[in-house]
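Ticket reopened. Same input as before:
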Amino acid sequence: MAVAVKIPLALRPATGGESEVSLEGATVREVLDALFERFGELRERISDEGGALRRFVNVYVAGEDIRFLEGLETPVPDGSELTILPAVAGGA
Amino acid sequence: MAVEKLKCKECGAEYPLEALYVCERCFGPLEAFYDHAEHSDPEELRRRIQAAREDVWRYADFLPLEGPPPGPGNRAIPHAGLPVGWTPLMRADRLAEQLGLRNVYVKNDTANPTHSFKDRVVAVASARARELGFTALACASTGNLGNAVAAQAAAIGLSSYVFIPADLEEQKVLATGVYGTNLVEVRGTYDDVNRLCTEISAEHDDWAFVNINMRPYYSEGSKTVAFEIAEQLEWTLPDRIVVPIASGSLFTKIARGCDEWLALGLVEGASPILHGAQATGCAPVANAFAAGADFCQPVKPDTIAKSLAIGNPADGPYVLDLARRSGGSVEAVSDEQIREGIGLLAQTTGIFTETAGGVSTAVLAELARRGAIDPDERVVLLITGDGLKTLDAVRGRFTRRAIAPTVEAFEETFALGVAA
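Engineering reply: fixed in the latest deploy. New output:
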C-alpha cells in the first residue's frame, strides 16, 4: 500500500531535498518506521526516546490531525497523504 | 542593534537571523536572542526610550531588527508604515468597583490603526521582512491579523495574501478586503488554515508569512504591550495581567517583556501573576491547566470568540508553564459570560471590545468573584480588539425602541417628565 508522505521544509536537508516520499504502511506508526528506515536521521528529529512524537510535531492523515483519530495507530488508507508539519506556526 | 541570533527554545540550537521558525534538530520554536551588554545603565536606557517617538519603535532596542526602525531616516526601509502602539492604559474605577477591586486598569489596544493588538506584531514582522528583502506579506488569520497585514502591506507598498476561515465575521472580512489584499477564504477551521499555510509557506519561500516563517520576529512585537504597561505605570509592573489566549504567543511574550526589563533594572520587583483567558468552546490550554497536564490536547473550536478559536495552540506548553510559575492560572468562560463581559466592560469603561476582550473581562470578573485577587492589587485587563469587528455578539442584548417624531410618542414610550 503506497502512501505519499509530505516532508516539511525543516526536514528536507535530511531527505536530500525531497518534499514528498512514497512509502508503504497500514498505520501512521508503520509509515513513519518506513520513513526512518529510508532516512535514519529523521527518527530522532520526529520521535522522542520513547518512540512517541515530539511535542512540536504535528502529523495529519488526509488533512486531519492524528490526535483526533487514533494517534500513531491511525490507519492510513492506500493512496492517502500523510503530512508532517511543525506545530509552532500560527497565532491568530 | 542588540539582536544577535535565533535560538531554539527547546534545545538551544542557534540559527542566523533569517526567515526561519523551527529548529531542524528537534522541531522546537525559534526565538530572537539579544545581547544587552551595552545597556548596563538603566537610567540612560530609560531616557533613550522616553526621548523616542510614541509608537512601538521606542522599544527598538528590544525588537529583532538589524538596522534602525523603519522611516525616512532608514535607507533600507524608508516607508515608516502605519504608526502602531502606545495605546492608552486607562484606570477603570467603575469596573473595579463592580468587581470589588480597587486598582483595575484597561490596556486598550483597540486604539491601534486596525483596531487590534495585531498591528504591533505585523509592524515588527513587516519591517524585518523588508530588511530580509521580501516583497510579499502573508498570514493565516482568524481575522484581526488579516486586517493588520492587509493594511500594513498597503501602507508600505508590498503585496499581501490573507488566509482566513470562510465562516469569519463579515466585519473582519470586509475590513481586510478593503485594503486591496488577496483574500483567501478557506473552507475549514483556523487550524486547517494554519496547516495549509504552513504547507504553502514551504513552497513560496519568497513570501514572508508573518506568523509562520517570520514568527520569531512577529511574536517579539507583543512584548511592546508589556513595555508600554510598565512605562505607563511609571516604570513599575502591575501585580496581575489578564491576557486572552489563542495561540498563546501574546501571553508568553508579555512574560518575556517583563522579565527582560526586570533583568536590565528598568523596572524592579517581581514578574506579574499571569492569567490566561479562553472560551469554554475552545479551551485546550485551560483544560490542560485544570488537568495538571504540561501539553495541550487539541480541540475542535465552537465559540463566538472566533479570534481565539485556535484548537491547536502553538505556544500552549509555554503558557501552562508560565501561568503556573507566576502563580496565575488559565481560565475558561462560556459564550454567555463572554457576552456579559462585553456588556460589563462597555457599561463601566466606555470601551467596546470584540469577543476576545469579553473573554478576558469575564475571566477577570470570575477571578474577582472567587476572591482570587486581593482588592488592593494592581490588575491590568488586556483588551486586544474592537467590538465593531464582532457586532453579532451584542445583537439583541438591549432594547431598541423606534418612535414617531412627536414629543407625545417620546413621552409615552420613555415615560419621562419634561424638564422646564
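Chain A has a mean pLDDT of 93. The longest strand of chain A covers residues 81-86. Please confirm and we'll close it.
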